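Q: Got a minute? One more chain.
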Amino acid sequence: MSALRTALRRVAGPFGLALSLTLAPAGDAAAVERPVHTFSIVARDSVTGQLGVAVQSHWFNVGSVVTWAEAGVGAVATQSFAEPAYGPRGLALLRSGLDASAALRALVAADPAEAVRQVAFVDAHGGVAAHTGAGCIESAGHRTGRGWSVQANMMLGDGVVPAMAAAYATALAAGADLPERLLRALEAAQGAGGDIRGVQSAAILVVAGAATGRPSDDRLLDLRVEDSAAPLPELRRLVGVWRAYGRMNAGDAAVERGDLGTALAHYAAADSLLPGSLEVRYWHAVTLAVNGHAEQALPIFREVFAADRNWVELTRRLVKPGLIPDTDAGRALLAQILREAPR
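A: Always. Here it is, folded:
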């Protein structure tokens, strides 16, 4: 235990006083501020190294409490009578060199209220560890596998955790990517009865397998549904929007490389993921036009302008920031585009 205490001392500075001084005393219900009874999953993709955590609960803004992840470090879910400090402190312990099991033991050993905590860790090497305190409200439990852990408390019945584990394994065997696997695990939990109180919010967080030094690039997917009668369907819809914008970005990159065929394939995929989105179609057209493919762009501009004339005015405003060059060629391109506006 000396190594664990040393690691805890090493990370105590950035996060305040010693952990045992910041947590509620065991059995002191009044001091426990966030009874986040819920189901969640933490996982690592063995191919990409991506790390993820996803959750649903009958609790407002659950993602702000439960979901924690850092590229190249790990992911943490902290729930039941949740101690949010388990998230940043757990990641700091992983960053210091401890594996998932050692980091979790360090936190639990220092917590006088461990009996009402439920916590799961996955580290950057796929190591997993989970803790379901004896005082968690039934039905409560967890199950771990290679690179993943599912956990739940205050569930309607005992079938939630096994359903999550089975759904994740099936999605993995089918070749689904990490966000899809996380979603399917949550959906299986809800299908098996879910939280005894119902639903309210959900969240999904996925980070890169290795840190780039650019945190905004490392956080690949970070979506929350804060208050909804159907948080999981909405979360799945938002993941679809995220995928569509990802294909748009890939299309833009292909245009910059001069690979129009690949770009058009990505744009078509984005359009199918988000049909009817003027935003997607408009920027598709802009990217094509300014990269020398105006003939492919003009029919798209025509459709967008016909649907909403505000996009015509927006197009005029693209010159000032340089999205359409303020040159003779750029002004000629702008005039060509604006001729597609309805009369």
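A: Residues 231-256 form the longest helix (26 residues).
Q: Perfect, thanks.
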